[in-house]
Amino acid sequence: MHIIQTTSDDVLEQTLSLFDMNLKLTLRYNSVLRGYQFDLFNIDKDCYITKNKGLSVGSPSLIEFNLPFVFVLDDKSGRGVNSISKEDFNNRMQIVIMSKDEWRESLRKF
């Protein structure tokens, strides 16, 4: 499992080496949706995995892709709700990257 802390910046970029892949993650704040959308670029294959994919608290993003992992937006406050303002991303939200097996196991705990 890998955790990415969010901030209230409009754009966040980060390179990651996960699951034997070198990836570039670009998060963009969408002021209409009051949430982040992301692009995920595979550096090794020089191609985008996805562009403008949304994130929602508790929902696995990328589950439909043939990838060994998912992204899950987590509300650290425990309320389990999406953001209501840009400032919520400063301290309350984080992105958890986990294997699909880890995600399935987390569902069994509920």
Key attributes of the depicted protein:
single chain, about 110 residues, mainly beta, 4-stranded antiparallel beta sheet, 2 helices, about 10% helix
Structural description of this entry:
The protein has helices at residues 88-91, 100-108; strands at residues 2-5, 11-18, 21-30, 35-42, 47-54, 60-61, 69-75, 93-99. The chain has 110 residues and is mostly beta strands. The longest helix is centred in the last third of the chain and has 9 residues, at 100-108. The chain is globular and about 35 Å long. The two termini are 19 Å apart. The mean pLDDT is 87.
Strand-residue proportion:
over 45%
Write down how many β-strands occur, each being a DSSP E stretch of 2 or more residues.
Answer: 8
- Unreliable runs: none
What is the radius of gyration? Answer: 13 Å
Task: Provide the spatial order of strands within the biggest beta sheet.
Answer: 1-8-7-6
User: What is the tally of helical segments?
Assistant: 2
Largest sheet: 4 strands, antiparallel
Q: Mean pLDDT, as a whole number?
A: 87
- Name the overall outline: globular
Spell the H/E element sequence: EEEEEEEHEH
